[in-house]
Structures are given as structure tokens and as C-alpha cells.
Amino acid sequence: MSTPEKVVENPAIDQVTPMEEVAFTVEETTSMEQVAVEETTTLEQVNIAEQPVTTSYSVFVPDFENSSNTLISSTFDRYNDSIRNSLEKDLDVIQQKVNLSLQTESNNFYRNAKWSPDGSYLLTNSADDVIRLFQLPSNVYKDADNADTILPMVPSFGIREGESVYDFCWFPTMNAQDPSTCCFLTSVRDHPIQLWDVSTATVRASYSAIDHCEKFIGPNVLSFNLDGSKIYCGYENMIEIFDVHRPGPDSKKVATIPKRKSKKGQKGIISCIDFCPDYSGLYAAGSYSQSIGIYDEVNNELCLKLTGFDGGATQVKFSKDGTLLFSASRHSDSILCWDIRDSANILFELPRPGKTNQRISFDLDATGKYLITGDQFGNTLIYDIATGEAEDVETKKRLVQTFKAHDDIVSCATFNPVYPVIATCSGQRKFTLPQDSSDEDEDMDEERVIIDNTLKTWRVPGEYQWYMYESAPVVDDRMIENTTITTEETVVLQT
Length: 495
Hints:
This protein is mostly beta strands. The protein has helices spanning 11-14, 18-50, 83-89, 440-445, 477-494; strands spanning 53-62, 70-74, 110-115, 121-126, 130-135, 151-152, 157-160, 165-170, 183-188, 193-197, 203-207, 221-224, 230-235, 238-243, 252-255, 270-275, 282-287, 291-296, 302-306, 313-318, 324-329, 334-339, 346-351, 362-364, 370-374, 379-384, 399-404, 410-415, 421-426, 455-459, 462-471. The chain folds into two domains: 20-51 and 473-494; 56-255 and 352-430 and 448-471, Methylamine Dehydrogenase, Chain H.
């Protein structure tokens, strides 16, 4: 016969008084309520974190159809001189020593100008092989004290290179508030690629491109990728890629053709490079052999090849949405717009007189609606590229504004990415032949040679507009873990 189990009584429980019993019950209920409140608070935090984050930003929208541009600063006749005299004027700002006795009397014309990504500085390149840095004028806005005055432009410093400057470019995330990002690259003939510091005008790093004869070769074009981690350089039948964090000769060489005599791939000297701004990993490379290649940044393979235009490509630039590609070439009177979404055909042409060997650079504004370019007659043309493939000449023309900016060829016209300012520069190489004394009478009837080597900035009409977008929610994993633990503790307590 089974013996009944003996129940062990807890004397502590048996001796609990009614008042203690009530206190225990209240304490237990309060603890459960606190846990429930903690659970509710944590769940609310998770719900808040899961909501989209709204971000706002402002963009300057130009109004070229109803107003005209205003000249606010210029170099005037400071560089309307020979290379020797121009260098003598800037001896106090050029960082290197210059031997004036070895300089030529050739015309010191402007080749190119580029705004910094934050819009605070302007870099220029001239025939004297000096990279000059100009600051943003103080009379950018109409309400400035000197808004109606044309200010003189004087460089903050100059860097004299040893040979011809092929190209230069800013660091893509440059911000004057962060000195570590204030730098730019230069490409010089028979010299390594150099990364210059804007604050100190000294070299931060050098990247050596060496050919098969163990000689330095300067790339014809160089460009950072969008995040600034790589440097892409263009050579004959090759694109060389450097890691920004690894100065020296280490690089990756990408051949644009499989073999030297092959008909596949993209032949010729790579003369211009531009990256698609939609972060799709595509970049375009133009060649002097009348072709443009679209490459994948991941494997650097040729995805699309564009041909059918005259002259070597001098500039390529994607639209802001990455669906169109604009290109310019030598001895061409138009800028081509390519549809790279599907057909790879030319959608339309933008007329621009440019029958010259010199490069004429163009640019797009921050909204991606307007394209600006110069021509060989000193005019600046502004096109509305949002018109699309079809142009209605009567109601909506692509050419929205044209104005006389210089007395010589406009080698570059560019938008400031932040401020309502346009920069233009001019000039070209001039040749003077010796004349006989018998030809003096004939010379009096001939037109005098026009010299206009100036850099100008123009105030653009328009206004700032605010835009908002919703970004993806960011959920903190720690919040989810806290919610799970709190829920488990509540279940245990309820049990």
C-alpha cells in the first residue's frame, strides 16, 4: 500500500499576515505594470524608427527666360599679355621659382576652369602651365554691399608645373569646412600624377604611371570616381586605375582593346571620362578615334560603344538622371545628346560654332535642366535640355539665352554647383608672322589681332527652391533585442 507523500509546508508563507499579503500583491502588480510600460515604450521607439525619414534640401533654379546675367568680377587685362609678362605679375602668388629669362612671348590664353564641389573656389589652367586658385566673389547676391561693382579677380595662389598641364580635377566630396577634403589632382606631361592640398599648396601624394620604357607618362585625362576612392586615367588603348589610399606605382591597367590589331573594343587615346551620377556603376570614356565607350565600374568591361560622329571626342558628360549622355568633339559645330537607355541613338544636337582645335567645355546646372557652352565667336549659349527629343520652334525653343561674354573664343563655361554664378574664360593661341617693310601699308588695312585672355564670373537670375524626399527607415537592432527580452520577461511574470 502506497504511503501518501508528505507535504512540506513553508513556514515563511504560513506566517504571512494579511497586511503583508496585500503588500506582496501590490508590489507584484506594480512590477508587471512597469514591465508593460517598458514594453510599450520600446515598441513605440521601434515604430518611430520604422517610419521614413524626411530630408529637405535647397537647389538654385535659374531663370534665363525672363532675366539676363550680370557681370560681377573679372581679371580684366591682367593676362592679356605674353606668358613671360603674366608670370612676372604673379610672382608673389606662384609657389615655385620662375626663371623669367627662359619664358616665351606666346599668348597666355585660358584652357579650362572648374568650380570646386562646394562652390567656394575656382581652378583655372592657362598656357603658362600655371594652376591658379580663385575664390568666390563677395558680391554673388544682389543684396551685397558691392553688388553693382565689377570686382577684380586675383588668384590666391598659383602652382607652376614643369610641363604642359593635360588635365586637373577636384576631389568629389570637397568641402571647405573639412580641410582633409580640400585637394585636387593634376596631370602633367612626363610627370607623375600629383594630389595637391588647397590649404598649403603642397603635394599630398603622387601616383606614378610608368610605361614600358620605365618613363613617367602623364594621363590625357584623369577623374575621381563618385566616392573619391579611385582615380581613373586615360591613355592610348588603356585606362589605368589608382587607389587613392595607395600612392606610388601600384595600379590596375585595363586594356580597351583585346589586342593591338584587334577590331573589337575601343581604340585610340582616351581623352575624356565621366561617371554616371545615379551610382549605377557606369562611366563613359571618349576617344580621339571618334568613339565613346560605356564601361561597368565593377569589372571595367565595355557595355556599349557609340560611334558615328566626326572628330575626336573632347568631353563627355552624363545627365543628372543618368539616362542621357552629352558629348563634344574637335572641329564640331554641335553638342550631341545620346540616348543610352535603349536605342543608343542621337536624340538631338545642340548647335555650337566650334571649328577649332581647341577644346570648348560645356557644363550642366545643378537641376540638370540647362546646359551652358561657349563658341568660337565669344558667345555663351544656354540650352534647355529638358525640352526632350522634339523641339517646338514656335512655342518652346531649346536655346533660351545667348550673350556676348568675350571678344575671343570661350574655351569654358561652367555653372557653380551651389551659388547662382557662372564662370567663363577665353583665349586661344595666336600666331604672328614677320612682315616685310613693303607690307606696312597693307597692314594698316588689316584687322588688328584681338587678345582676350580673361576670366569672368556672372550672377545668374533665379531663386532657391526647397525639395523634400523620404529616405529608407533605419531600425536599430538593439531596440528589437530589448523588445524581445521585455516581452519574454512579461510572459514569465504573468505565468
